[in-house]
Each structure stands twice: as C-alpha cells, then as structure tokens.
Write a structure and sequence with these properties.
Elements (H helix, E strand, L loop, with lengths): L5 E2 L5 H5 L2 H10 L2 E6 L2 E6 L2 H9 L12 H6 L1 H8 L13 H9 L5 H7 L17 H12 L8
Parallel strand pairs: 1-2
Antiparallel strand pairs: 2-3
Length: 154
C-alpha cells in the first residue's frame, strides 16, 4: 500500500461487505495510517499494542472539546451530540473528568457485581420449556428482552 491518505469510504460496497482483508493488509504494512472515512480525515490504528499506546498517550483526546473546529463544523454529529448533551460522558472525556467519572462507576463493575448479572444456568433458562423456568430466571429473561436493568434479580 502506498503512503497516500487511504479513503475508507464506508459507502463503497466492497469495503462495506468485507473490510477485514483491508485491515489485515494495513496491520501488516501500515499499522498507523492516515485515512478519510465518510469524507472526514482520521487516523486508523490497527494493531493492539499500538492502540493501547495511543489510548495511553495524553497528547490524544476523545473529548469533543479538543476537536479541530473545522472538523467539528464538517461533522454534523458533533453539533448534534453537543446540543443533546451526549458529549459529556465517561467515554467522551479526558482526565481529570474521566478519572472522576470512572471512580464514580467503578464500584458497579466489580467482578462480584458482574457475576451477579450473569444469566442463571448460563442463559439456558431463557430457552427452556414453558412453565419450567424458575421465577428469578423468568424475571432475568423478561428484563433482558425489554432492556430493563437486571441487577439484583439473582
């Protein structure tokens, strides 16, 4: 692959149908590559260790506050996220706001709490015959289908 900016327009049928051969070639030949996607410039990082390094680099930001104003103007979703307040969350923040939010939610994601959210009987109860599902599992299955929080159904 050349060093030119790669256009990964998700609207192209071949890329949309099967992007994985392109990703494999990029991992091999150019693991960090400047691209355009849907007409917007970006960087694509394709190898795990490179991604970890980029995520730990304080020079990079996920906050929309750090976005180039010209790019923000070109991407309508930026204005939509800001207008609705969707840009103020754990995933879209940098330290120290990210650290504060992470500390607030970390107790809800301990291994014990996550284990309590697992489906009873490995999820088999949701697929068992009618009338045979224990009451806690029925509540879990119903909550799973409706998107309702399932904590405490154990």
């Amino acid at each position: 692959m050349s060093d030119a900016v790669l256009d990964l327009d998700a609207g192209q049928p071949a890329y949309k149908a099967d992007p994985y051969p392109i990703y494999a070639e990029l991992r091999r030949s150019a693991p960090v590559r400047q691209i355009t996607m849907n007409g917007l410039p970006a960087w694509l990082v394709t190898r795990y260790e490179d991604v970890r390094q980029a995520l730990a680099d304080s020079r990079l930001s996920h906050s929309l506050d750090s976005l180039n104003p010209a790019l923000a103007e070109a991407a309508g979703w930026v204005l939509a996220e800001r207008t609705m307040g969707l840009d103020r969350n754990l995933l879209r923040s940098d330290p120290p706001a990210h650290t504060r939010l992470r500390r607030l939610v970390s107790k809800a994601f301990t291994s014990g709490r996550i284990e309590a959210l697992r489906p009873p009987a490995g999820g088999q109860a949701c697929r068992s015959g009618r009338g045979r599902t224990p009451a806690p599992a029925r509540r879990y299955c119903q909550a799973s289908r409706t998107g309702t929080a399932v904590a405490g159904l154990r």
